[in-house]
Design brief:
138 residues, alpha/beta, Transcription Regulator spoIIAA, five-stranded mixed β-sheet, 4 helices, 7 strands, globular, disordered C terminus
């Protein structure tokens, strides 16, 4: 299967994990969110991996429109395989604050958030390397 063309993403596979790096600096309009969603889903379909790191280190600003592609990617991974994991990394303090405020991530695991996070790609890959018990949500 040919590699999908990306305008807003860079993709690599490291240690059996799909690493998707968003190349945009701002995520704030519907058209970009739709395009990004298509690219994220195309990469997952192409690589057929259930472990994904989403690297956001280039992003300096997000609006709520950015949540849709991330949540849709998470949902697609869960539909593929209940043991799928998606870890966000490289969040700037401003972007991190938006994710904390909306409770999409938890700083210390104090509540059940939709996304896991790591400081950077290396830390996210290390988290995949550790043994873990899947979280069962009822």
């Amino acid at each position: 299967m040919p590699e999908a063309q990306n305008r807003h993403l860079k993709s690599t596979v490291e240690q059996g994990v799909l690493v998707l790096t968003i190349t945009e600096t701002e995520l704030q309009d519907e058209k970009l969110a739709d395009s990004l969603l298509w690219e994220l889903l195309a990469q997952v379909a192409h690589h057929k991996l259930n472990k994904v790191v989403l690297d956001l280190h280039n992003i300096k600003y997000v609006s709520s429109v950015a949540f849709r592609p991330f949540l849709s990617l998470r949902r697609k991974l869960q539909e593929m395989d209940s043991t799928s994991r998606l870890i966000l990394c490289g969040l700037s303090s401003m972007v991190g604050d938006v994710f904390y405020t909306t409770r999409l991530i938890s700083r210390a695991g104090s509540f059940d958030a939709p996304f896991e996070m790591a400081a950077d790609v290396a830390a996210a890959l290390a988290r995949f390397g550790r043994d873990f018990q899947p979280i069962v949500r009822e």
